[in-house]
Write a structure and sequence with these properties.
The protein contains eleven helices and 14 strands. The strands form three sheets. It has a six-stranded mixed β-sheet, sandwiched between helices. A four-stranded antiparallel β-sheet has the order 2-1-4-5, with helices on one face. Helix 3 crosses helix 4. Its EC number is 7.6.2.2.
Length: 323
């Protein structure tokens, strides 16, 4: 495989154990150059361990890891020169200015003083922090700190960027600002691996998603394909709770799925099987044929929350910091 066609990130059969805990169990991952990959999974699934292995912070026990064409075990130094990493907590000195933080990062990466200063000015301007550049970081909002931390990882213009839950704890406006920054980086050709506890974030940003559970990938693909694979959700609200059973039979018959009945809300819902789309006119006719009076009928396309629940058996709220 030539360098031009080689993926930016490759993991094959990667295993990592911490004592009795198997953090990674044969994890496979491929991320093409210039794309955003969202890594999702419940607590303890192995997301952060995967990032740490890719960033050469821990060595795998078994398997192959390549980043930007370099073997992450045999050529760890080359990998470190090719990556940027923004972890779950901002790695900034709050007692100096934003500009000085970036300058410091540049000097640590062995940029000359003039080049480090120029790069700091360039990044502050590009990501709309120039006016705050000469303020102490302790005066920054949470969103501004996260943006500064993110762009600090870009001082050396790395082709591959690892973002480990970059928007955790941020308000919606700050989260939108980080999303815009990530989108700009991807549009500029940077390959991004993103772990996140916000499924909307993965849906908005990721070209492909890898769902990890118990240290292995259990599903891979674009968000649209993963959502299409689990079917749609159909719900019927009834005027008469006594007709819930009849409605459930109709929904199950048309969808091929098991209907769920909420007696208190007088609602029957079903998740259709792939390829068994339920058309509203057909559903209304079938309900009418058995005398069921519906107050409301709705078809909802699945969300990544539905994908996550279907694949892992856990609610999306269980997403979060993982070992």
């Amino acid at each position: 495989m030539s360098d031009a066609t080689r993926p930016a990130i490759e993991m094959a059969g990667v295993e990592k154990r911490f004592g009795a805990t198997e953090a990674l169990r044969g994890l496979d991952l491929t991320v093409p150059v210039g794309t955003v990959c969202g890594l999702l999974g419940p607590n303890g699934a192995g997301k952060t361990t995967a990032v740490r292995v890719l960033a050469t912070l821990v060595a795998p026990d078994r398997g192959t890891v390549r980043v930007a064409g370099h073997d992450a075990v045999r050529n760890a130094e080359e990998v470190r020169r090719a990556i940027g990493l923004a972890g779950q907590h901002a790695a900034l000195d709050e007692g100096i200015t934003g500009r000085d933080n970036l300058h410091l990062f540049g000097r640590l990466h062995r940029l000359g003083a003039r080049r480090a200063r120029a790069r700091a000015d360039e990044l502050l301007t590009r990501f709309d922090l120039a006016e705050a550049g000469d303020r102490l970081v302790r005066t920054y909002s949470g969103g501004m700190r996260r943006r500064l931390d993110l762009i600090a990882s870009l001082v050396t213009s790395p082709p591959v960027l690892f973002l480990d839950e970059p928007t955790t704890g941020l308000d919606p406006r700050s989260r939108q600002e980080i999303w815009a920054t990530v989108k700009e980086l991807a549009d500029g050709g940077t390959t991004v691996l993103l772990t996140t506890q916000y499924l909307e974030e993965a849906d908005r940003l990721a070209d492909d998603i890898v769902v990890v559970d118990h240290g292995a990938a259990i599903a891979t693909g674009p968000p649209s394909r993963l959502k299409a694979a689990i079917g749609s959700q159909v719900s019927v609200t009834l005027a008469d709770p006594g007709q819930l059973g009849s409605a459930a039979v109709v929904l199950s018959s048309l969808s091929g799925g098991d209907a769920q009945v909420d007696v208190a809300e007088r609602v029957v819902t079903v998740l259709t099987r792939p390829g068994r789309d339920v058309l509203l006119p057909s559903l209304v006719r079938e309900l009418d044929a058995v005398g069921v009076v519906a107050e409301d009928v709705a078809v909802r396309t699945p969300s990544l929350d539905d994908v996550f629940l279907t694949l892992t058996g856990e609610a999306a709220a269980t997403l979060g910091r993982a070992a």
